[in-house]
């Protein structure tokens, strides 16, 4: 099987990254990923691309097999993951067309399988700082160089979907100071952490979420996709440039220090002792 060191999850409107790719179908212990994984070369780096909703956008956010998608990347050897997504704004200063390089998430989903550690190996992993600071700074620099309005940090609240928020929910989320709302960052980003992969999110703002500002219209799927299509070229340029400028030593980015493993006899394991993902 081909190996890849960098992985990219595609979201709404972003279903293709490289022109010349090899499609790989990967079976996982958690079922089928959203689609085949497309593997190609860019700037001397091997890159894996997977559209999280499937290439025809046939999988809604609450039905995505996040564990299978992340496991497939890890099976290919991916060490760093770029995770762009369509998102709504919960703050007046975060406008449609802006990019937000989030540094925190708040999980408001339910019923999603969100860990690989269901026994007999038990792991308690801290996502206190869930996104890689090195990759976040790289994303910020590249986005600025492309003259795209960017917010250097922000909290994304992740709702279950597929429905959008009520006005009351939007106002409640915004009252906490959270800037971004999305349906896919959890558990995707957290599962990357469990796999020891560095991850960065770029949220592409498509709308002001319903109820945040009295003068804004309620969000609808059609308007979201229209704005995302306008941004698709921008995010592709940003992702491609990030790949070209990735650090040569991706192992240095992997959050292994955040992993604490144990088993039934209380013995603490190092990450290198784990064979769960091989």
Can you lay out the helices and strands and say which pair or pack?
Layout: E1 6-10, E2 22-24, E3 37-42, E4 45-51, H1 66-75, E5 80-89, E6 99-100, E7 104-108, E8 122-123, H2 133-145, E9 150-151, E10 155-159, H3 167-175, E11 180-182, H4 185-194, E12 198-208, H5 221-244, E13 261-262, E14 268-269
Parallel strand pairs: 1-4, 1-5, 5-12, 6-9, 7-10, 10-11
Antiparallel strand pairs: 2-3, 3-4, 5-11, 6-12, 8-13, 13-14
Helix pairs in contact: 1-4, 2-5
Walk me through this protein's architecture.
This protein is α/β, with parallel strands linked by helices and 278 residues long. It has one domain (6-273): Nucleoside phosphorylase domain (Rossmann fold, 3-Layer(aba) Sandwich). Helices cover 24% and strands 23% of the residues. The chain contains 5 helices and 14 strands. The chain is globular, with a radius of gyration of 18 Å. The mean pLDDT is 88.
Strand content: 15-25%
Q: So, the CATH homologous superfamily?
A: Nucleoside phosphorylase domain
Q: What is the number of domains?
A: 1
Mean pLDDT over all positions: 88
CATH class categorisation = Alpha Beta
- Computed CA radius of gyration, to the nearest angstrom: 18 Å
| Helical stretch tally | 5
Order of helices and strands: EEEEHEEEEHEEHEHEHEE
Q: Which architecture name does CATH use? A: 3-Layer(aba) Sandwich
The name of the CATH topology is Rossmann fold
Main beta sheet strand tally, sense and closure: 11 strands, mixed
Query: Segments where pLDDT lies below 50 for 5+ residues?
Result: none
* N→C terminal distance: 13 Å
Tell me the number of strands.
14
Instruction: Assign a percent range to the helix content.
Output: 10-25%
- Shape assignment: globular
